[in-house]
Amino acid sequence: MKPRENRDQKRVVPILMSLLVAVAAPRANAEQWIPVEGRETLQALVSGATARIDLGQGHSAVGHYAADGSASIEAWGEVFQRSWRVEGENQVCYSSAQETNCFSFERDAANANRYRVRDTRDGEYTYFQLFAGQVAEASVAGDGSLGSPSAAEIAAELSNPNTAMGTLNLNLDYTAYQGDLPGAGGQESWRLLFQPSLPYPLDDTTNVFFRPAIPVVIEQDVPAGIGEFDSVDWQLGDIGFDLALGKTLPGGYVVLGGVVGTLPTATDDLAGRDQWLLGPEVALAMTRPWGVVGVLLTHQWDIAGEDDYDTNVTGGQYFYAFNLGGGWQINGTPTFSYNHEARNGDNKLSFPLGIGVSRTLLLGGRPWKFGVQYWHYVASPDDFGPDYQLRFNVSPVVALPW
After folding, report:
1. 305 Cβ contact partners less than 8 Å away, ≥ 6 residues apart
2. CATH 2.40.160.40 region(s) of the chain?
3. Continuous H helices in 34-92
4. Contact criterion met (CB below 8 Å) for 366 and 397
5. Residue 184: φ, ψ to 5°
6. Do the strands 239-249 and 228-236 form a parallel or antiparallel pair, or are they unpaired?
7. pLDDT the model gives residue 125
8. Residue 18 pairs with which residues in a beta bridge?
9. What one-character-per-residue DSSP string does 260-283 give?
10. What does CATH list as the number for 7-149?
11. Is the dihedral of CA 362, 6, 159, 82 positive or negative?
12. By CB atoms within 10 Å of each CB, which of 14, 149, 266, 313 scores lowest?
């Protein structure tokens, strides 16, 4: 989460700045527009401006453009930092860590307080009005306007493990298995995992996270003896959770620490462990304009429940994302585990190499992230374990309830 500038120091100028909405050509042709040109004129128009943009569905964004060339967009619980400048004699450009977009301005010949802005990328127009004594509001913002974050900016922020943006993450996993057990190579599973993330911001760089992980076993083959497998269909698995405190440090470094646990909620004995698990977690990450890399480590012991066996598992996840622009990313979030209670060393470690691609889109004003990943297990229990895994992900961004 990026530092917020002191809003008390801002001079709020009554101007509606942006909403990248295509306007019908007949309307544009019926009106006379005068180009707004000159560095000083454009500088005066944008300097100190504040615009509140309606993103649709009751959500809004607020853009601040300071006279010193700094800018920020507040949207979806996060602050996106930008800079801006006048380019040549007829364009205003903003730059973020991910992109630079430029716009030209025109004034309505019949109404000196009415303007339109042309996005030089696609030629689409936005209309705004100057109102005395108040900040104007507009209807729907487009991708990367002067008053709303772009898909590229949102995609980069969603990869930050300490983001203040709320998401409802839905993962569909297909896993193919292998092993020395007869018939192991023909087994597979489909699982659905719902993991909402609704951070609670404590300050500009610190968030509290409580993230439940609710699994639904659609279909899974489970060893039941030598050469025999039982099938589990449409059952609730054991619900996991973590409670953690995240902190962004100077230089773009992120640290996170807390507790992780598992509840015995499975509706079928074959879909869970029938134990209460608890343990610590810690994560370290580095965020840069090109993306993010990091690792999460957890450990869980059984603290109650079934006592015929013990659980002692070290787990984790390494994650990375490389920003490609336009909301596209190459990324991966593979999970690994080491079972200290396995009967021998050949059955302890599960470790995949993973790669994927994702794209963040603005649909109806709301950001959605879609992705697919492939994980190939370079280490897996010899008796029975995963061979490869496909993960399909859908994550809509949601407003925080607090």
Report:
1. 264, 273, 274, 275, 276
2. 153-398
3. 39-46
4. yes
5. -65, -35
6. unpaired
7. 85
8. none
9. EEEE---SSGGGS-SEEEEEEEEE
10. 2.40.128.640
11. positive
12. 14
Helix (H) or strand (E) run with residue 156 in it: helix 151-158
- 325: which 2 tokens? 């622009």
Q: Which of 377, 393, 375 is nearest to 385 (CA)?
A: 377
The CB density around residue 395, as the number of other CB atoms within 10 Å, is: 22
Residue position matching structure tokens 């659980």: 311
Instruction: Output DSSP code: residue 15.
Output: B
Q: Where in the chain is the domain with CATH 2.40.128.640?
A: 7-149
Decide if pLDDT at 139 tops 80: no
**What confidence score (pLDDT) does residue 138 get?**
55
Structure tokens belonging to residue 147: 């008053």
Q: Pseudo-torsion of CA 102, 108, 113, 119, nearest 10°?
A: -20
The DSSP output letter for 44 is H
- What's this model's pTM, rounded to 2 decimal places? 0.88
**pLDDT, tens digit, 9 for 90 and up, residues 194-233:** 999 999 999 999 999 999 999 999 999 999 888 789 999 9
- Cα–Cα distance for residue pair 370/392, rounded to 1 Å: 8
Determine the topology of domain 153-398 in CATH. Porin (2.40.160)
Q: Whose structure tokens read 């490389």? A: 322
| Residue 381, helix vs strand vs coil | coil
The backbone region for 43, taken as left when phi is positive above 0, alpha when psi lies in -120 to 50, beta otherwise, is alpha
Compute CA distances 346 → 227, 352, 382, 386, whole Å.
19, 15, 6, 14
Q: Which residues pair with 334 in a beta bridge?
A: none
How far apart CA 10 and CA 48 sit, in angstroms, is: 7
As a whole number of angstroms, the distance between CA 115 and CA 15 comes to 10
Contacts with 136 (C-beta within 8 Å, 6 or more apart), sequence order: 14, 15, 16, 51, 52, 128, 129, 130
**Non-local CB neighbours of 253 within 8 Å, separated by 6+ positions:** 284, 285, 286, 287
Residue 298 phi/psi, 5° resolution?
-135, 160
Find, among 327, 382, 379, 374, the residue nearest to 355 by Cα: 374
- Rounded-to-integer distance, Cα 26 and Cα 65, Å: 32
Mean pLDDT for 243-267 is: 98
- Gyration radius of the chain over CA positions: 26
Q: How far apart are CA 182 and CA 200, in angstroms?
A: 49
Residues 34-57, mean pLDDT to the nearest whole number: 88
